[in-house]
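Bug #77: duplicate submission created two jobs. Keeping one. Sequence:
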Amino acid sequence: MRKNAGREWRPQGDPEQVRVYDFPISGLGRATPYGVYDLGQNAGWVNVGMDHATATFAVESLRRWWKAVGQEQYPGAKHLLVSADGGGSNGSRVRLWKWELQQLADETNLSITVCHLPPGTSKWNKIEHRLFAWISQNWRGQPLTSYAVILQLIAATTTQAGLTVQCQLDTNPYPAGRKVSDEEMASLSILPHTFHGEWNYTILPRGTQIDTFIL
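Kept job's structure:
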């Protein structure tokens, strides 16, 4: 069983048993949440992975959000704007992140604009204090003993402002170490923006006429 900081009321003399130390335990697996937060709808989507937090997993989370929520919520959409941290699996320098986004753009025929927060500024990312902060409060003091418990606690997160959260378990494997070659990078249909193009860029579905797209 996994400990979780915080306090929770329980009947006297009936504490929930947990391990003293929170080391990984063979056979129990891991839980890796990746969230999508829709500012306009005040709605969160959390994909809980069971494997490594790779760029492939990050983009798969976006794909699942789009298929389950996004395309129904925005049926006429042709563009997708993603605000992401500057590091981690969706970092601005991660080649695999851009490669996988290209596959998503090709599949959905969406142009995907990414705006990374500059290094050291991830605390200003809206998803941190409008989604994950509330999830952390909701499950504080609750031992995360199983995937079912994790999914239930995340999906039960709400606020007075009307936040809703959907949650899904992702059982796919995401092996670490995938390298993207120079040739693969050269095949991307990516447009750096004029302002800090290393942090702000748009990935077009391959075959799109670049001169018809206005940044």
